[in-house]
Every structure is written in structure tokens, then in C-alpha cells.
Specification:
Layout (H helix, E strand, L loop, with lengths): L2 H4 L6 H9 L1 H9 L6 E2 H8 L3 H14 L2 E6 L2 E6 L2 H13 L10 H12 L1 E3 L2 E3 H13 L3 E2 L5 E2 L1 H9 L14 E4 L6 E4 H13 L3 E3 L6 E3 L1 H11 L7
Antiparallel strand pairs: 1-3, 2-3, 4-5, 6-7, 8-9, 10-11
Amino acid sequence: MNSHDTHPGGPDLAALAALLADGTRADFCLALLDGRAWTAIELARHAGVAASTATGHLNRLVGSGLLTQERQGRHRYVRLADPDTAELIEKLASMAPRRADPPRSLPAVNRSRALARARTCYDHLAGALGVAITEAMTDRGMLDWEQGLALTGDGTAWLAELGIVLPPATRRPPVRSCLDWTERRPHLAGAVGAALCRHAFDAGWITRIGTSRAVALTDAGKHALTDRLGPAAVET
């Protein structure tokens, strides 16, 4: 008797695993963690495959519900379906073994280091910077981990001082712990994590590095985070 007989109608975890077992599809999902919409041509160039090959892989990912698509004229754009999908990909990346062939060229090494220092994970901050901010907020009593991650009254007041207005309650939790794949420690996700990341961009605290999802902490960001969270928040 196979697993489909013993668990009729149950979730087909093997089908999901098979989707991500392909290196090209996995690379697409990792690239889309930047939260932006990409075209098939852009993803093909990123993964080093033919456009027709990319289209076939994207059709499978869209059909599975991992990606969503939208059309503008002749162009089709794809993105990760939702924050839950992004956090699933980030968590799987944190559990995956490191590649046996690490980057050797100087540009590749620099890109890898930049991603580890600070990057976006869909719509919130990750990397050493994201983890440092999360830990600084915890140390200052803005986040409580006692009975599952929660935003405290001090945390709510701190966000208000920054002018961050949280969106109305939705299915997405206000705060969520997302295991960082480079730091192997949690960074802040959820609606609060997204709002804080958006504020950091709008206030000029961080800026994107090229077209990757790596970000750089600006001088203004260093001063602002040091003033508001202490020096530990920028020690990356």
C-alpha cells in the first residue's frame, strides 16, 4: 500500500518537494525573494537558461500556486504568491546544505557577502542587519518571545514615534519569526517587519545594491538605528 492509499485526500508533500528539487526552479524562487515581479526573460538570464526553458518551469510554479502572475501588454510578470510562500522558501534555504562549489570570483564573493550582511526577504529585512535589528528590539522590550513572538506596548509606541502606521488586521500576523538562512537566527517578519522595512527604504536608511535583493545601510540609517536601538542594531 502506498502513501496515497494510506492518506487519501491528504497533502501531497512529495509534489511540492519535487517542484523545488529542480535547481532552476529553486533559483527562481530564491531570486523572487526580493519581493519584486520578474519577467521570464529576466529569470532566464539570472539562472543561465533559455527563455523557453524558463517559461516551462514558471508554468509549473504558477500552476502549483507558489507563484502568481500578472500581464501588462505583451509581458508576463511573476512573483511569489504571498508572504507565507516567501517565508517557506527562506526557511527551506536556512535548512539546506551549503553549496559544494562556493563562489570564487571576486564579484561573486562580494555579492555573497553583501547578501549575508543585509537583504530583503520578500518584504522584510534579513541578513545580519535584519537579525541585529530584531535582537535589539528584543533587548529593549519591544518584542516578547515568552509565549510566541509578540509586539509589546513599548514596541507599538516605538513604531508610532517613527510614524509607522500598521495596516488593519488581516490574516497575516502582526509579527512572525523567520529563520534567516545565512545567520541561522530569526529575523522579524509579518506585518510589522514589512512596515519597518518599507519605512527604512522611505527614510533613506537602506538602499538597494544594483538589481539584487542585497541592501546597504546608509550613513543616515546607521545614525537613526543607533539613536533608536543602540549600536548593536548596526553591528553587522
